[in-house]
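Can anyone check this?
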Amino acid sequence: MADLMCSALSCVNNLNGFCSATVIHVYGESAGYSDETKCNTFAEKGIINAFSNLANMNIPGEIRQLFSGNTIEMSPIIKCDAVKCVYNKHEKCSAKNVEIIGDKLEKSKITKCDTFINKR
């Protein structure tokens, strides 16, 4: 599992820049660069999305993160369709550190995997 940082502040899974999901899914099967990827696990914050995402919440990791000063305890499994990325190993991300970003961090559902590097 990778250490995942996320700047999509309006995502229900974002907890102070950490991803509280157990599993995320990065889309971008034909992606040639980062802008063509997308975190498909993104769900805008709200009561309905909070309840619908309960099954994918890393609650033990969230509790450990509260008491951890320097380590990242919430590291989701990252499924990835971006087969042209150097970190894609059998449709899972092998990068040690992953960053998901969004263009309009507080309002937009537009996200991307900023860690994407094309195999070329």
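Reply from J.R.: I decoded it. Residues 58 and 119 are 31 Å apart (CA to CA).
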